[in-house]
Write a sequence for this structure.
């Protein structure tokens, strides 16, 4: 990823103009029709200003529709289920926004390019760090005997929400977020078998 490249301090007004222009042009032209040149023109800046922030169109689009180098930090609600409810609602808000389904499809197709895939994995690592914090808190509270692999929980949560929104197209987002949080929390607290442990990919006995 390139959002934290060294150099002169970034102008937050330019940051905001780039992201807003990207969102507007995605709505007008779609993911395939979006170009860095068009975003620069709409934002009233040069392309160099964009490339100082984002190495590729895909990074710029991800930052505009999902998140950039900063991700929302989870509140400490005091329970794993409530923390996961926050996580489910946050993911739903990001990938359930109008037009994001098409954007995600385009990004997935472009991940055949290794540079794009590397950048997307970097964004995923930021998300998993947030999930790791939730799991570590639950472990410290004694809700979990050991922290499960954040990548496992990430895949379960993201996969279920993506399928619900963009494969099945079903509504009742709040009810689904509640159900998903309860199901995942219950499975982590009382696993029927074993769960992948953080760090080694092995399973803890249930």
């Amino acid at each position: 990823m390139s959002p934290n490249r060294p150099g002169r301090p970034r102008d937050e007004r330019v940051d905001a103009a780039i992201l807003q222009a990207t969102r507007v042009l995605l709505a007008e032209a779609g993911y395939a029709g979006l170009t860095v040149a068009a975003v620069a023109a709409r934002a009233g800046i040069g392309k160099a200003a964009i490339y100082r922030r984002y190495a590729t169109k895909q990074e710029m689009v991800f930052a505009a529709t999902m998140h950039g180098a900063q991700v929302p930090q989870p509140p400490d609600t005091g329970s794993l289920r409530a923390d996961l409810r926050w996580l489910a609602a946050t993911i739903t808000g990001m990938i359930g926004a109008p037009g994001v389904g098409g954007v995600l499809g385009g990004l997935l197709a472009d991940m055949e390019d290794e540079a794009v895939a590397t950048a997307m994995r970097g964004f995923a690592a930021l998300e998993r760090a947030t999930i790791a914090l939730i799991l570590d808190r639950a472990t410290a509270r004694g809700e979990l005997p050991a922290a499960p692999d954040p990548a496992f929980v990430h895949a379960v949560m993201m996969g279920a929400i993506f399928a619900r929104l963009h494969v099945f197209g079903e509504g009742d987002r709040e009810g689904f977020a509640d159900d998903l949080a309860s199901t995942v929390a219950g499975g982590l607290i009382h696993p029927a078998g074993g769960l992948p442990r953080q760090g080694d990919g092995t399973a803890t006995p249930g």
About this structure: The chain is about 65% helix and 0% strand. Residues 95 and 113 are 22 Å apart (CA to CA).
